[in-house]
Amino acid sequence: MHQPKRIAVYGPESTGKTELAGKLAAHFRAPLVAEYARERWDVQGALTLEDMLPVAKEQWRREDAAAAQAERLIICDTDALTTMLWSDLLYGTTPEELRRGAEQRCKNYALYLLLDIDVPFTPDPQRCFPDPADREKAMRVWRGALERRGLSFVLISGEWVAREQRAFEAVERLLAGKQT
What we know:
Order of helices and strands: EHEHHEHHEHEH
Strand content: 5-15%
CATH superfamily: P-loop containing nucleotide triphosphate hydrolases
């Protein structure tokens, strides 16, 4: 059975992940797996530690459903590592089932697009860290999670048009079987 390539649009908050994920999905005519945590927050309000595993499981379910229907590619507006990192950051711990799932599932992505913090922070009720020092720390944490696991990623930085172009090129290289 053919498995489509999974692309994770990844990085700290307020870096344009959702917008870029939507543009990638439209450009490549690929399914978009939206961020379930944002949906859940919109319905119930702030998330707690007890929400982390259900959020992850629903995200995984949606991603796997999209992959079952996709031909060559799916775009994911978050990933299992992100849920784990946020759990550790906000609550100081992560449910073990979530941690195990994140460690296993992160290997399913053909490519991570790591969005840099070099864009202005946009306030949102779901965002926590507008301070530049906090954003820099988050960037180190998110990048470090990829590097420690040896996961394939491309840093996406610069102005919005340049970000979009770099992301499109990275995905095109991946689809062509070229090194990213």
